[in-house]
Each structure stands twice: as structure tokens, then as C-alpha cells.
Specification:
Shape: globular
Helix content: 55-70%
Number of helices: 5
Radius of gyration: 11 Å
Strand content: under 5%
Distance between the termini: 22 Å
Structural class: mainly alpha
Length: 67
């Protein structure tokens, strides 16, 4: 989840604020950011909407590109 950590830092949000807004624990968010745990599809959609980026960006740190 490379993009998750990047977008949070770009927007100057701390883990506690994002976790509260997404209704998850700060520890869970940390695990997602560091690849120790994988979020559900439902949570990925919620994160994507929250940050207004694609799910692909949250996972890879890059927007989807057509080939």
C-alpha cells in the first residue's frame, strides 16, 4: 500500500485523523501502510473515496495507465 502512506503524507494528515475519519484504529492503518495487513475491498473503496484517488494508486503509488 505504497500510495496510501504517500497520499496521507502529501495531504499532511496524521494516522490518527485518517483512522478516525475511516472508523478504523490507528494501529490498523499503520499495518495497512506498512504491508503487514491487507484492507478489505470495502475499506479500499472507502479509502479511495476519502482521498479521491484510485484504488490502484493506494496500492501501487501510481495511477492506472492504459497500455
Amino acid at each position: 500500500m505504497i500510495g496510501l502512506k504517500n497520499i496521507r503524507k502529501q495531504r499532511k494528515l496524521n494516522q490518527q485523523k485518517v483512522a478516525l475519519d475511516l472508523n478504523i484504529s490507528r494501529e490498523a492503518l499503520s499495518y495497512y501502510e506498512n504491508g503487514k495487513r491487507e484492507p478489505s475491498l470495502q475499506l479500499l473503496v472507502q479509502m479511495s473515496n476519502y482521498f479521491n484517488v484510485s484504488i490502484n494508486y493506494l496500492i501501487t503509488g501510481q495511477e492506472f495507465q492504459k497500455r
